[in-house]
Each structure stands twice: as C-alpha cells, then as structure tokens.
Amino acid sequence: MSPDSKIYEGKAKILYTTDDSEILLTHFKDDATAFNAQKRGTIAGKGEINCAISSHLFQLLEAKGIATHFIDCPTPNQMRVRRVQIFPLEVVVRNIAAGSLCQQTGLALGTAIAPALVEFYYKNDALGDPLLTRDRLLFMQLATPYQLEELQAAARQINEILKVFFNECGITLVDFKLEFGLDRDRKLILADEISPDTCRLWDRSETDPDKRVMDKDRFRRDLGSVETAYQQVLQRVLAQNV
Ligand code: UDP
Question: What separation in Å is there between the alpha carbon of 196 and the centre of ligand 1?
C-alpha cells in the first residue's frame, strides 16, 4: 500500500485507493471524537472492534437483501469496500428519544418512538451537520424526490432488521446513523459503518441510565469503561449467527 493512495482521512477512518478502481480500502482508527471534533481521544482496540461489528452487520443486512459496500476484511482493522458516490447526508433513525432529539424538542430521554423517526442531516462539518427539512434537502439537490423515498424506505427496512438482531443480543437499538451512496448503475448502496460509534445501544439487562450505555455516549459523557462496553457489544454480536 503506497502512502499516496490515501484519498480521505476522517475522524474515525482512513480511505485508500487500491489496484482496482472500483474497490477502496477503509482503515478503522482507534481515534474518537465527539461534539464536532471538539472532544478528542483514543479508545484502545476500537478500530478492530468497529471493523468486526460493521462487517458482521453488513453481512447480516446483505443476507436480508440490503445492498452494502462491504466486500471483506483483509486485516482486523481494514475493510475492502465497493467504491460508491456518497450522498452528503447522515440518515438518522430513532426508535427511542435521546441525544440531540431530546435537546432540541424537550422530549424526555427514553420516550418510545413508533413508527421510527427517519431524519436527514447535512454532512458538513463547517456548518455542524445541520438537520435538514425535506424542502431544503430537495432545494439543495442533495437527492432527488425518488432517491429521498428510496433512502427513507431503506433506512426503515435496515432498522427493522437491526432492531430484531440487537434485541436477540440483549441490546436495545435506540438510534443510529447511516450513510448511503450510489454505484455506477445509480443503485442505492449502504456505506460507511454501523458500530457503537454510530449507534446508541442500551444493555437490556440494566435499568440504570448510565450503566446501560454500550456506545460512544460513554466517551462523550465520560462514563468510563468505554473499551469494555465496545468489546461487550462485539462479543454479543459475534455470538449471533448471521
Ligand atoms: N451520529 C453519528 N454521527 C454524527 C451524528 C450522529 O454517528 O455525526 C449518530 C449518534 O451516534 C446517534 C445518532 O446518530 O446514534 C443520533 O445522534 P444525535 O442526532 O442524537 O446526535 P448526538 O446527540 O450524538 O450529537
């Protein structure tokens, strides 16, 4: 791997080109950031853990008919993925009120949401990833009306699969963020990662609002035992067959 093949370095991952122009290599880092990178740190082993969790979940979703960018993992913290053109959107699905939803609406933490909320945020660090309305998203041509429907439907379908899966792991899927792209045939492909960095996951055997947290909120809120929580998620995910 030549160093100049790096095409992008994000907060948690580095993307490299490969010999095949249709295939990229993702390197999962141990670095952690929160609050639009104002808080920075390292979570030991996170790269390998998130790579393994994401790879397991992508394979689960593929088996259920969802097209993803996942190809394989050549090393424990690297994932080969299909090259796609990423929508500059963060698609957030919420089953239970937490995080920015509570801050912005006053809804109590833990309020059940059914059917799930599907929200779109503009992927733009300089603007702080603002929440978009449907009209703004369409006006800005971030997706076509048809693609917007497709994104919403895919997000809901993925939520149904992941909710059931995590439930079987003894984990409540509170909310999560997805990113999608288009392949050369303009087909919708699930991309990025699905991990405790991008999902809120609550241990179903714990009622204490801090003890139950198994995701990046442990880092965001200085709850401690971050590595242990991520490892616990990995163990439970791997214990379930795809
Ligand atoms: N999320 C993410 N990346 C972001 C913003 C949010 O992965 O840039 C995930 C976050 O981990 C949570 C869900 O999306 O699982 C909803 O996040 P929220 O809008 O509540 O924002 P937060 O409170 O995390 O700032």
Answer: 11
Q: Which domain holds residue 41?
A: 6-82
Distance 38 CA to ligand 1 centre (A): 15
The preferred substitution site among 89, 92, 221 for testing ligand 1, maximizing ligand atoms within 8 Å of CB, is 92
Same domain, 103 and 27: no
Helix or strand holding residue 47 (H, E): helix 46-63
Say what the pTM is.
0.97
pLDDT of residue 4: 54
**pLDDT value of position 3:** 45
Please tell me if the CB atom of residue 100 comes closer than 6 angstroms to any atom of ligand 1: yes
Query: Are the beta carbons of 234 and 52 closer than 8 angstroms?
Result: yes
Report CA 69 to chain centroid distance, whole Å.
Answer: 13
C-alpha–C-alpha distance, residues 114 and 208, integer Å: 23
Residue 239 lies in a domain: no
Residues 53 and 96 reside in one and the same domain:
no
Domain match, 184 and 92 both: yes
Q: Tell me how far the alpha carbon of residue 210 lies from the centroid of ligand 1, in angstroms.
A: 17
Q: Specify the pLDDT at position 241.
A: 77
Element (H, E) at 182: strand 171-182
Please report the atom of ligand 1 found closest to the CA of residue 119: 19
Q: Is the pLDDT of residue 2 over 60?
A: no
Is position 189 within any domain?
yes
Express each pLDDT in 27-51 by its tens digit: 999 999 999 899 999 999 999 999 9
C-alpha of 156 from chain center: 14
Residue 1 Cα to ligand 1 midpoint, Å, equals 32
Cβ–ligand 1 distance for 192 under 6 Å, the answer: no
